[in-house]
């Protein structure tokens, strides 16, 4: 029999995956266990400490209790008893976390693959993961404490959600129920939302959101089951009964908390449910999740909702504080300097989302005097694109490198600092990069432009736009004109090089064309024609020189964006971050007239 080490804890070299896995198991490792005492276990003893700051359970359900094992390594699974001495059917499991793709480039945090290993089997306690104790709780366990070996676990018992409806409806004047859907059921027909929501159905810690959006968390009408047997038989259940028990426990906690809030204030409960599964409409794309991040704030909210000692007024006040802490709007830069067209100066395009259930008006405003702003309706849970021109100093002596453009959504507002003019391309060339990953939902909601933007160590990309070809203008048979050079780091021995590509977008967004190159030297454009490319590869990076078309420059400047799809399937772009479903990135406006050929050095 394999013995676990003296201390079992979650370890991983990937911070993002570590955070997600802890959420999957409902663990809060950064907090001390408040049950079972504190301090190290004495010699000769094994202590099982709950990792949750408070253990909420429903009598008659299966308890899934994350534990930390301290002291001597156990040689067998612990006895689990109630205060009255009754022994409960219990098992100890190692829930292993297996990597499943990169941690970056996702709108929502990815769901690692979980594998449940019994205590005595090889692999238990090895690698990233956590110990979980499952115990079948009898229906008459209400009010009793729980003993895991010599450690007493104080329990907070919650009512059976299936029986709770009678109680709360008797005290409410509304004809609705706590299980009413917070959003129209037709929302689940949206392909974009379905794709984002699908992993939640397989995620034991986040399935409650999927159920809340799908059926309002209405309790299933199932027979009483004292243990793990039969848990996987219901439609939509997870394949492993331990993971199914974790999922059901989380759903039961949210059911009770939301029902108690609904008893005190049905309207507030409905507002909270809508926020917990908030989605926003991106015209032409679909609906995307915009709900609060999983983390300490959500955990604390759930603990407040399920605390029977909290008064109804305190519960309402804490929920209102949570709702008020959530952002009302989200604004992001789509394009800093867009096409000039008939205008004398380039325009900027900013996206704005309404993260509330109240429609408002939106507009762009510059800090200086100018024309009256154009008011644009912004629907509840909707998004729009606003294009305009910031006020630029007309006095040549007062010109600055950056100008400011404000965006307003009702009383909410923010501003963006944008380039005052096109990016000048001068010898040795215009350096660009690093390329950044698409927006994540948590960074987008808070306007954190650098959060989650890095593609990760060993996967950075940057380049240069120049009139000098590889090895110098006269060094090789290279066509005259503009050359784009890009260097892409990779971990070639752990990836799939055949997936790698770099796409160069030319011309206006939505009306331009593209050129694509691959590490093996192939090149193509959207018309199927060949592209002049030179590539070099090594174990740490690959480099490419791309001959740009002679007519890529437009009147008033040249528009350019660069996009990489790396060997892991992670997408990065320059000059702006994109939404994951955005197929055409925003462009940079380049001024090619500043190039002085007399001062051009040799190329890289």
Describe the structure.
By secondary structure, this protein is of the alpha+beta class. The chain folds into four domains: 1-158, no CATH class; 166-225 and 241-326, no CATH class; 329-420, Sandwich (Immunoglobulin-like); 424-599, Immunoglobulin-like. It has nine helices and 31 strands. The chain has helices at 15-24, 161-170, 191-197, 207-215, 241-264, 266-276, 296-305, 312-325, 441-446, and strands at residues 46-50, 55-58, 62-71, 80-82, 90-98, 113-118, 129-136, 146-148, 151-153, 155-158, 279-282, 286-289, 329-335, 348-354, 360-365, 376-378, 383-388, 402-409, 412-419, 423-424, 430-432, 461-466, 483-489, 501-506, 513-517, 523-525, 533-537, 541-547, 558-565, 571-574, 588-591. Strands 20, 24, 25, 26, 29, 30 and 31 form a seven-stranded mixed sheet that branches. It has a five-stranded antiparallel sheet with strand order 1-3-7-5-6. The chain has a five-stranded antiparallel sheet with strand order 21-22-23-28-27, with no helix packed on it. A hairpin with a 2-residue loop joins strand 8 and strand 9 (151-153). Helix 2 packs parallel to helix 5, helix 5 (241-264) runs antiparallel to helix 6 and helix 5 crosses helix 7. The radius of gyration is 29 Å and the shape is globular. Mean pLDDT is 86; it is low at 1-39.
């Amino acid at each position: 029999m394999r013995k676990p080490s003296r201390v079992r804890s979650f370890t991983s070299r990937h911070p993002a995956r570590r955070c997600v896995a802890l959420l999957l198991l409902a663990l809060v490792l950064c907090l001390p266990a408040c049950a079972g005492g504190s301090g190290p276990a004495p010699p000769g003893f094994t202590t099982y400490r709950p990792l949750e700051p408070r253990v909420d359970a429903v009598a008659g359900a299966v308890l899934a209790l994350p534990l930390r094992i301290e002291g001597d390594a156990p040689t067998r699974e612990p006895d689990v008893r109630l205060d009255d001495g009754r022994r409960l059917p219990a098992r100890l499991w190692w829930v292993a976390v297996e990597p499943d793709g990169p941690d970056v480039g996702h709108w929502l945090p990815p769901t690692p693959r979980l594998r449940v290993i019994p205590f005595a089997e090889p692999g238990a306690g090895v690698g990233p993961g956590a110990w979980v104790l499952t115990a079948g709780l009898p229906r008459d366990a209400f009010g009793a404490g729980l003993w895991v070996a010599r450690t007493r676990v104080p329990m907070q018992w919650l009512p059976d959600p299936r029986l709770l409806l009678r109680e709360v409806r008797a005290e409410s004047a509304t004809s609705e129920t706590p299980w009413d859907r917070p959003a129209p059921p037709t929302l689940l027909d949206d392909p974009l939302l379905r794709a984002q929501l699908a992993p939640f159905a397989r995620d034991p810690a986040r399935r409650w959101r999927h159920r809340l959006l799908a059926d309002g968390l209405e309790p299933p009408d199932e027979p009483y089951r004292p243990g793990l047997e039969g848990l996987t038989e219901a439609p939509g259940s997870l394949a492993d009964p331990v993971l199914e028990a974790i999922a059901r426990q989380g759903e039961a906690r949210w059911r009770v908390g939301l029902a108690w809030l609904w008893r005190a204030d049905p309207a507030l409960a409905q507002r909270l449910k809508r926020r917990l599964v908030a989605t926003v409409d991106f015209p032409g794309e679909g609906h995307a999740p915009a709900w609060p991040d999983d983390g300490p704030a959500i955990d604390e909210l759930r603990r407040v909702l399920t605390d029977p000692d909290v008064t109804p007024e305190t519960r309402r006040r804490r929920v209102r504080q949570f709702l008020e802490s959530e952002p009302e709007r989200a604004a992001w830069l789509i394009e800093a300097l867009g096409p000039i067209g008939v205008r004398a100066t380039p325009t900027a395009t900013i996206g704005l989302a309404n993260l509330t259930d109240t429609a408002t008006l939106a507009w762009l405003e510059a800090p200086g005097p100018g024309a009256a702003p154009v008011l644009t309706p912004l629907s509840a849970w909707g998004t729009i694109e606003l294009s305009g021109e910031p006020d630029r100093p007309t006095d040549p002596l007062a010109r600055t490198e950056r100008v400011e453009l404000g965006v307003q959504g009702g009383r909410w507002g923010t501003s963006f600092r944008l380039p005052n003019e096109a990016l000048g391309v001068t010898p040795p060339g215009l350096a660009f990069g690093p390329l950044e990953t698409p927006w994540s939902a948590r960074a987008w909601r808070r306007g954190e432009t650098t959060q989650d933007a890095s593609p990760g160590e060993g996967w950075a990309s940057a380049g240069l736009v120049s009139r000098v070809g590889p090895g110098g203008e006269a060094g090789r048979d290279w066509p005259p004109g503009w050359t784009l050079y890009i260097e892409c780091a990779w971990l070639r021995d752990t990836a799939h090089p055949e997936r790698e590509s770099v796409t160069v977008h030319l011309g206006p967004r939505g009306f331009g064309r593209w050129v694509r190159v691959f590490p093996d030297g192939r090149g193509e454009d959207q018309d199927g024609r060949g592209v002049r490319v030179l590539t070099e590869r090594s174990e740490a990076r690959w480099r490419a020189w791309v001959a740009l078309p002679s007519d890529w420059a437009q009147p008033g400047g040249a528009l350019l964006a660069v996009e990489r799809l790396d060997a892991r399937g992670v997408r990065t772009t320059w000059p702006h971050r994109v939404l994951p479903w955005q197929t055409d990135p925003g462009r940079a406006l380049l001024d090619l007239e500043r190039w002085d050929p007399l001062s051009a050095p040799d190329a890289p």
